[in-house]
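[Discussion] Sanity-checking designs against the backbone

I'm trying to build intuition for which residues belong where. Below is a structure token string of 74 positions. I'd appreciate it if someone posts a full sequence so I can compare it with mine line by line.
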């Protein structure tokens, strides 16, 4: 998952299943301005593998919020 920040600040990125349940918190911290990339390992917050399928990731950063769909294939 790639993104770029115009200014540094607090960033959260969470992954949800199609039912809207939180699967994994990928990022929850401060990031510098500029391009960033994170890879989801297909594990949930408990460290267990999740099933292949459709998931959504939501990114919140400095008043900006975006949700996108992704497909996990194993």
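Best answer:
Here's mine. Compare freely.
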């Amino acid at each position: 998952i790639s993104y770029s920040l115009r200014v540094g600040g607090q960033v959260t990125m969470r992954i949800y299943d199609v039912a809207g349940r939180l699967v994994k918190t990928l990022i929850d911290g401060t990031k510098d301005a500029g391009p960033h990339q994170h890879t989801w390992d297909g594990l949930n917050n408990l460290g267990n593998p999740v099933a292949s399928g459709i998931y959504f990731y939501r990114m919140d950063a400095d008043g900006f919020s975006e949700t996108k769909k992704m497909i996990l294939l194993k």
